[in-house]
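Action item from last meeting closed. Structure (283 res):
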């Protein structure tokens, strides 16, 4: 894969307010880019606002939305999209991504709900993505999500995902942990799913930890360390598509910065290993 297409590079970390001050005073050298949920930062002011501005001026940032509700039948919140556009311009954010899900139905549901895997839903969601891209005047990246039920399913998840991406002509945010979690919960082959993704549209990737409720039931929590099978799946993705930007998500049970950086550096180590293999292969 031609890495020149990527707007960020290397190993990234999701920014959380709990360690914002630390980043301002002693930013780690190990992090190449950061990700923020615009909903949490658009209206921020005062001390936090100044600190946020101080780091967005120094480092590469991307936006990862939580509330666009791209699959909802509610009217698209274009006012919010315009606010995101202004926020991205103000802080020179490289790109905007969202989940292939919905979180509103005549009010917010406070969770990411699965979109029915139907041809009707493909056209509905793709049309909304196109409208967002028109307002932002740039492509957005859509993330494959974890889900625990598939109401009204007419096609496999990967077929639905690919149809939406193709119809919307948007980019892709691959979530490695979500592929693994879904493969266990819905009994499919994670590598086969990965191989079928439209990697030529890949903007960057997420990797995270999850909670094991039972042997055949995993919960995508972003609240634990990443397990070995998920790291191996990331390595497989690099083997298939070359090294691409990859970001660590940690939303709960957030450890001290040194612990977070261990996993960021594991991302970097896996990237370096596959880059060296690629160099040997084509030397």
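Sequence:
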């Amino acid at each position: 894969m031609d890495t020149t297409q990527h707007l960020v590079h290397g190993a990234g970390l999701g920014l959380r307010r709990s360690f914002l001050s630390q980043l301002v005073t002693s930013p780690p050298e190990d992090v190449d880019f950061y990700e923020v949920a615009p909903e949490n930062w658009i209206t921020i002011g005062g001390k936090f606002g100044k600190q946020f501005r101080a780091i967005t001026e120094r480092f590469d940032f991307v936006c990862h939305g939580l509330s666009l509700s791209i699959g909802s039948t509610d009217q698209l919140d274009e006012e919010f999209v315009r606010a995101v556009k202004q926020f991205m311009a103000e802080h020179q954010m490289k790109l905007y991504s969202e989940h292939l899900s919905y979180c509103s139905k005549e009010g917010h549901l406070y969770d990411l709900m699965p979109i029915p895997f139907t041809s009707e839903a493909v056209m509905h969601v793709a049309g909304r993505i196109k409208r967002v891209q028109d307002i932002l005047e740039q492509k957005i990246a859509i993330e494959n999500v974890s889900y625990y039920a598939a109401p009204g399913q007419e096609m496999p998840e990967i077929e639905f995902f690919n149809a939406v991406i193709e119809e919307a002509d948007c980019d892709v945010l691959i979530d490695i942990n979500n592929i693994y979690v879904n493969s266990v919960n819905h009994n499919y082959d994670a590598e086969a799913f990965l191989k079928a993704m439209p990697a030529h549209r890949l903007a960057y990737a997420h990797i995270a930890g999850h909670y094991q409720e039972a042997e055949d039931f995993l919960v995508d929590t972003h609240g634990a360390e990443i397990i070995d099978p998920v790291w191996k799946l990331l390595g497989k993705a690099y083997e298939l598509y070359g090294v691409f930007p990859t970001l660590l998500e940690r939303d709960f049970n957030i450890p001290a910065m040194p612990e977070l950086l261990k996993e960021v550096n594991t991302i970097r180590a896996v990237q370096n290993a596959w880059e060296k293999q690629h160099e040997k292969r084509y030397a």
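Note appended to the action item: Residues 72 and 83 are 19 Å apart (CA to CA).
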